[in-house]
Amino acid sequence: xxxxxxxxxxxxxxxxxxxxxxxxxxxxxxxxxxxxxxxxxxxxxxxxxxxxxxxxxxxxxxxxxxxxxxxxxxxxxxxxxxxxxxxxxxxxxxxxxxxxxxxxxxxxxxxxxxxxxxxxxxxxxxxxxxxxxxxxxxxxxxxxxxxxxxxxxxxxxxxxxxxxxxxxxxxxxxxxxxxxxxxxxxxxxxxxxxxxxxxxxxxxxxxxxxxxxxxxxxxxxxxxxxxxxxxxxxxxxxxxxxxxxxxxxxxxxxxxxxxxxxxxxxxxxxxxxxxxxxxxxxxxxxxxxxxxxxxxxxxxxxxxxxxxxxxxxxxxxxxxxxxxxxxxxxxxxxxxxxxxxxxxxxxxxxxxxxxxxxxxxxxxxxxxxxxxxxxxxxxxxxxxxxxxxxxxxxxxxxx
Amino acid sequence: xxxxxxxxxxxxxxxxxxxxxxxxxxxxxxxxxxxxxxxxxxxxxxxxxxxxxxxxxxxxxxxxxxxxxxxxxxxxxxxxxxxxxxxxxxxxxxxxxxxxxxxxxxxxxxxxxxxxxxxxxxxxxxxxxxxxxxxxxxxxxxxxxxxxxxxxxxxxxxxxxxxxxxxxxxxxxxxxxxxxxxxxxxxxxxxxxxxxxx
Lengths: 399, 198
Prior knowledge:
The complex is a heterodimer of chains A (399) and B (198).
Chain A: E1 10-14, E2 17-21, H1 26-36, H2 38-62, H3 67-76, H4 78-97, H5 105-110, H6 115-129, H7 131-141, H8 143-163, H9 170-182, H10 186-207, H11 224-238, H12 241-264, H13 270-306, H14 311-340, H15 345-371, H16 378-398
Chain B: E1 4-15, E2 18-29, E3 33-37, H1 44-52, E4 59-63, E5 68-71, H2 83-94, H3 119-131, E6 137-141, H4 149-160, E7 164-167, H5 171-176, E8 180-185, E9 188-193
C-alpha cells in the first residue's frame, strides 16, 4: 500500500508556473513511515521482545531479582555498562537495520517532505523498538533515565548500521558508548544522547541505498558438501541476521536457565543437567536458522539437478550448515554456564556442543521433509519442532 | 557413426492440466547448434529445462551427456553471494578445478554481490557459469537478453564453436550462430529449417 500524505498547500508562482509547497503534518509522516518501515521493524521487534520477555520472567519472577538490581549492576563498573549495552545493541541492531531500506521507503524519499521529518519519525519508531531497555530503566530510575538509555541504544545501533556502508559513521556509535562509560546524570546526558541518536539515524537513512562495503570471498573450489554448507551459512550471516540474533537470544536464554539451575540446585551430573536444560533452546536455535538454509537450497536446486549432484551431498551440506552454528552456540553456552556456576566448563561445553549435533540434524531432516510437501503448514512445522524439543529434553532428563 | 550428445524421445510434460510439451523427439549431435523458435508459452523453456535435467518429463526418454551447461532465461542465482563465490560453487559441483572467467567481462564483477548486479551483468554471470568446464552441451534460454553489443559478439563466437541447444526470439542470433531452427507451437514441433548462413 502506497502511503498518502495530506498537506497544506502553499503556492508560489514563478515565471507563470504555480509551484505548490507541501507541508505534511507530523502524524501523516509518522503514519507513512509506519506503513512502510514499521512492518519489518515491528515484526523483528516482536520476536526480540518475546525473547527478552521470557528471560525477564525467569529472572524477575522466579529468582527475586528486580530492575533496580540490574541497573545497580549496570552502574557498578564501566565494563559492566559496556558489556550490557553492547549485548543489548547486538540483539536490537537487526531490528533497527530493517527500517532504512524497507520496501516502500524509496517512494517516501521522493516525496516533497523535508528529510528531517523522516529522520524524526524514524527515531521515534526506533525508540519504540528499545521498549524492553526503556522499561527496565523506567522501573528502576524513572522516565528520564529510560529515555537516555533508549536514545543511546538507538544512536549506537543506527550508527553501526550506517557504518556498514560508510565506516566513519562508527564515530557516532563510539560517542554513544563513551557516554555510557562516563555514566553522567541523566539530565546532563539527555541532550548529547538525543543529538547522537538523530545524527546516527540520519546517517543510516542517508546511506541506506548505497552499496554495502566490500564482502570477503569465503569460498574456494573444493568439496561440494563444504561449498554448499558455506553458501547456506553465508545466507544466514548476510541476509538473515535477525534470525541469527534470535538464535543467539534463544541460546542465551538457555545459558541463563542453565546457570540458575546449576547454582540453585547443584546436580550430581552437571553434563546431564546441561543436556536437559539446553535441549529446548538449541532446538529453537536450529529451527530459527533452518529457514535461510531452505531458501538457499531452493536457489541451488536447478544447478544441483543439472550437475547431477547426489541428494546425499545436498543433505549433508544442509545438516552441516545447521549443526555448525547450533553446536558452536551450545558449546559456548555450556562453557559460560560452567565458568559462572563453578562447574568444569570443558565437559559441559563439549557435551552441549555434541548434543546439539543430533538435535540440529533432526530439525534439518524435519524441515526438508516439510519443505518438500505440496501443502506446507507453519503449524505442522512447529509441531515437529516441539516434538524434537520434547524428545531431546526427555533424553537429557533420562540420561 | 557419431553418437548423439542429447537424445529426447517422445517426451511429454504436463503442468497440472496444461500440456507444455507433447511427444517431442529431438537428437543433437556433437557440434550441432539447434535453435528453438516459437511464440511465448509454446514450450521452449520447458523443453530446455527437460533437456538440461532441471525437470523431468512425464513420459518419454531423455539421454543427456554427463556435463551440461545451463543458463535459464531468468538467472536463478542466490543473490547473497559474491560472483566469485557463485562461480566457486558451480565449479565445485561441476568438478572443475578452477573457474575460467575470461571473455564475458565477468572479471570486473568477481568481488560484487549478485544482488547488486544489473540484468545484463547477471546474464553474463549466468552464461559464464554455464560455460565453466567446457561442458559437452550448452542449453541456453534467451542467452543474449540484456547483453551489450560487445558481450553479445563474444557469446556468438563462443556458441559457434560449441554444441548448443538454445531458445530465443532473436532471429539475428540464430543466423549468426548458423543454427538449425525448430519451430515450436503448443508443445509440438511444427517446422524444421536448415542452418541459416551468416
